[in-house]
Amino acid sequence: MKTSGKLFTIGLITFWYSSNIGVLLLNKYLLSNYGFKYPIFLTMCHMTACSLLSYIAITWLKIVPMQTIRSRVQFAKIAALSAIFCASVVSGNISLRYLPVSFNQAVGATTPFFTAVFAYLMTLKREGWLTYITLIPVVTGVIIASGGEPSFNLFGFIMCVGATAARALKTVLQGILLSSEVEKLNSMNLLMYMAPIAVVCLIPAALIMEKDVVGITIALSKDDINIVWYLLFNSALAYFVNLTNFLVTKHTSALTLQVLGNAKGAVAVVVSILIFRNPVSVTGMLGYCLTVTGVVLYSEAKKRNK
């Protein structure tokens, strides 16, 4: 029984890594290499898949018990989180059009820095001084990596920093807004409610900012049917990223999750460099290593503070 449990956990972690890195690389391929220059529409496809698959997983497959929204106030809170979640995913996808995955991951690794800043500004929650010191290499590493990035693009960099900050803001806000036991939702139920709201926000945004995107996608599919399969597979993967993240959190310890999360970024960097062959500099890699080291030290410092 123990062996089958171990195998299940290993399989789950493998699927988690594959879906996370797969969606990242496929986003990059579609937006940059394939030439599908519509990040808002791509995010809308992701959110539509998350809406449908979340509903099927919770109501039919009963992966987790269904939690209901209890008040208009709770719905307003979920809508606010959805808007930030949406902004984060769109900004991240836009940044992939302009930046290599390796640099995108380096900037993404600074999430703890933004989380600590927002937690302090919004809840006045102070960490120990050691925790703040560990954030210095996190930020310094990205500054070094930016200076040594051969494919640096300022707009892409701003979008990537925005996506990282929005992700941290959502985490902090979620802790504040849905803190009461009555309003607390597990991540799968929260996704089921957030994703349709995100779709409603993204439809007008895509139609206004990415003119005739539906017509262009249909025309593209007539020339190359693969685009349809890419979009369907990519959208399904976007849901499985959330599902596997939830299951890995449930079946492993917080420490294991932290270690695996830090390693995942490094694996994504190596795989993306091997696939896309984007130029990397020694300075850029040193900066990224410094950031990851800072993130590991930050996790350790937080653990000791508890």
UniProtKB/TrEMBL annotation:
Protein name per its UniProtKB record: Sugar phosphate transporter domain-containing protein
Annotated keywords: Membrane, Transmembrane, Transmembrane helix
InterPro entries for this protein: EmrE-like, Sugar_P_trans_dom, TPT_transporter
One GO location term (cellular component): membrane
Coiled coil segments of this chain: none
Ranges where the Sugar phosphate transporter domain occurs: 12-299
Residues spanning the membrane: 7-26, 38-63, 75-96, 102-122, 129-146, 152-169, 190-207, 227-248, 255-276, 282-299
Protein localization: Membrane
Keyword Translocase: no
SUPFAM superfamilies tied to this protein: Multidrug resistance efflux transporter EmrE
Domain of life: Eukaryota
Organism per entry: Carnegiea gigantea
Membrane topology reported for the UniProt record: Multi-pass membrane protein
Keyword Transmembrane carried by entry: yes
